[in-house]
Amino acid sequence: MRSPFDFALALGDDALVAAQRLGEWTSRAPEMEEDVALANIALDQLGAARLLLTYAGELEGAGRDEDALAYLRDDREFRNCLLVELPNGDFAVTMAKLLFLSAYQLPLYSALAGCADERLAAIGAKARKESAYHRDHAALWVRRLGDGTAESHRRMQAAVDQVWPYAHELFAPWPGAPVDPAGLRGDFDAYVGPVLAEATLTRPADGWAPAGGRDGVHTEHLSYLLAEMQVLHRAHPGATW
Amino acid sequence: MAAVVDPEIRVITIDELGILRAVDRDAATGRVTVTITPTYTGCPAMDVIRADIRRALAAAGHPDADVRTVYSPAWSTDWISAAGRAKLAAAGIAPPPATRDAGTAPATRAGTVVPLTLAVRCPLCGSAETEQVSRFGSTACKALWRCRACREPFDHLKAL
């Protein structure tokens, strides 16, 4: 039986790992404006992660704060979905990942804003406005690349095909959670479907649906990401500046 | 308290920006509690804002002031006061459209869609012939715009 701590931890880990991946684009994006945009979106994800992990630590009651949860857990203790830990790939893959993540986080945070847990409701009400910008940004690029040149179309379609299987895990039923993600799939499809159609892209068939992130079973990519994210804190525990 | 400015947009006070929610003084102990809220969840200026508030209160004779952070009701650009908008514009930052009546807290918008931006007037030359360069700018709360009339780039505090 998964607890309220597990739920806050899973959402916080989604946001934290997404922030770390998006941050990898800094200084490497296709244009300077995009560099700034991806860094801003990463910062929003980090902000949500800090609130969620702080709350998770309080729910657990074992004295772990946001830093202890972010820096002192190994990959098997992380509860993020597999989608966010996948490598950035090319820019099309990053935009496909961001589209699917934000088309999940936006209805999730919106539903949380009306849930009975006051802390989660406040975090949801705050984060959903930021998510709306993320989703809009990703959809803009998916349309532009999908309905662009033959090469951009080919790569955007390849990105959607590659990432699509990982979207299913986001909506795995979670009975008893403040918001059951299974109920958000309709919102996701209602948004992503038309975006793909406008982008002249084909919605992939549903089939293979890798999962395990919520149980701590990850792809090989997560431990490398954590090594980079945690190395400073682990080398100098408790250091501040 | 009214003199504490935003560390990233130093022309506007935290009260005008709408992130100062309350200042309370305990009648028995005299201890001051200040309540603030962030513009964006990841706003990196919050630690500096807290320190600035404590410093201002210490200088005013309240060295033990407590600064609390709340997230509800969520900040939106509707919380920026008319005076704050005017100061932003004077500093070359195009303010978001005003939808708030003076002296009242804004209604909470659902916030699930990006607010449509119809036209942003250039804060430098006043032209409405402007275009968005990027929805994300130098800080979390700003977007990058440029003016087609005077050719100057400028910041726009985007509607949230």
TrEMBL record, chain A:
GO terms for biological process: phenylacetate catabolic process. GO terms for cellular component: cytosol. Gene3D superfamilies: 1.20.1260.10. InterPro entries: Aromatic_CoA_ox/epox, Ferritin-like, Ferritin-like_SF, PaaA_PaaC, PaaC. SUPFAM superfamilies: Ferritin-like. Pfam families: PaaA_PaaC (PF05138). NCBIfam families: PA_CoA_Oxy3 (TIGR02158). This is Ring-1,2-phenylacetyl-CoA epoxidase subunit PaaC. It comes from Micromonospora haikouensis.
Automatic annotation (TrEMBL), chain B:
It holds the Pfam family Zn_ribbon_PaaD. Residues 3-59 form the MIP18 family-like domain. Residues 118-158 form the PaaD zinc beta ribbon domain. InterPro entries: Fe-S_Maturation_MIP18, FSCA_dom_sf, MIP18-like, PaaD-like, Zn_ribbon_PaaD. It comes from the Bacteria. SUPFAM superfamilies: Fe-S cluster assembly (FSCA) domain-like. This is Ring-1,2-phenylacetyl-CoA epoxidase subunit PaaD. It comes from Micromonospora haikouensis.
